[in-house]
Structure formats: C-alpha cells, structure tokens
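Example with several molecule types.
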Amino acid sequence: GENVEQHPSTLSVQEGDSAVIKCTYSDSASNYFPWYKQELGKGPQLIIDIRSNVGEKKDQRIAVTLNKTAKHFSLHITETQPEDSAVYFCAAFRNTGNQFYFGTGTSLTVIP
Amino acid sequence: GAVVSQHPSWVICKSGTSVKIECRSLDFQATTMFWYRQFPKQSLMLMATSNEGSKATYEQGVEKDKFLINHASLTLSTLTVTSAHPEDSSFYICSASQGTSEQYFGPGTRLTVT
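Resulting structure tokens for the full complex:
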C-alpha cells in the first residue's frame, strides 16, 4: 500500500517568515495530493490540493509543489501569520481503492 | 459549499453504554463517507469506509461489531460505539465524498468514556 512520510513534525517560524513542509509518497499510482489544516479540537480543513498532472499550484500565501519523479510534494506558506499556527497534514490518494493516506502531521507555530 | 456536520461535538458516557455519532453532508450528496479516529498529537486513522446503501468496509484491526456504521442515505452516516470502554475515548472524525477524490471533513466528535 501507500506510505506517506511528512517532515518536519514540528516547525517554529517568526511571523512574516516562510514555512515549508515536505511529504514523500511511495505509490506512483497516487494522483491527488491535498493539504489539510487542523486547529485544536477541530476537524481538518482543506487548504490546497494538487493533482498529478500539475507541478505547482498557488493560492495567495499558500503554494504546493509536486515532483512526480521523486514522489514528493511540499507545502509553502509565505508571510506567515499567528493564525497560521496549527497542525498540517498532507495526504495522497489514488482512484483505485478510494482511500486517503495521511502523513503524520506537522505542528506549525508562528511566533509573533 | 461542501459542508459536513457532526453531532454531538462532544459526549461523555459511562463504560458499557453505547454512543451514536451522526455525520451529515449539508449541501451535497455523499456517495461515500469515511470514519476516522484520532489520538492526541497523532494523525488520522481510517476506521471504515461506507457507501450509501451498502455495508461498510472496515480497516484491519477495527472491530465491526463494536463500531457499527450505517450509511442509510446520501446525506447521513452514523457511527455507534457499542459497549464503550475508556480505551475507546478518542476524537472521531467523519468525512464525505461526492464520488470524486475530494473529501470534506466534519468538525469531529470528542468521546470520553468514564
């Protein structure tokens, strides 16, 4: 099956700096890669996603890059703000099996 | 759009009793719903996948007689934790899909078994 690894497990940045979280996956058949933000005591919220036919996608301060050959994808948050502090999960999905495989999460703290 | 609700948001029950958690897709029809369990500071663990009108498919190690899942309509799935024990205390999260790859998550239900 699929194996998704996520690094780092914790990340602290100064407000205004950039944050980068990286994930690798093992199954070359995975074709959809969402990123979720989870605040304490709440469910995950989709913040950005990318499909395997695209190399990069950007939405304001958030961007995701995908390297299919190397089987890794990354979340980039620029101009970080305290409200970006949360746990971020990456996931990989393939149509066959209809199942998400989640990374282990990254706890991001933005220091004012 | 794509809003998923869960009820209750938190529940405390005594050991040996059963608890039902509801998951609803509010503005779309969910052909597939997923139930996850999450322990503190850990990732989401898929418990089961349910398709409307069909029996749920449980992940290895998840007791189907203990965690009863019903997906009776395209907007509602329920998870019943039967004969709950303290080790069942956890954060339970559902998600819903319209048959595409996107999943929309509910806000979660905090279960505490005393």
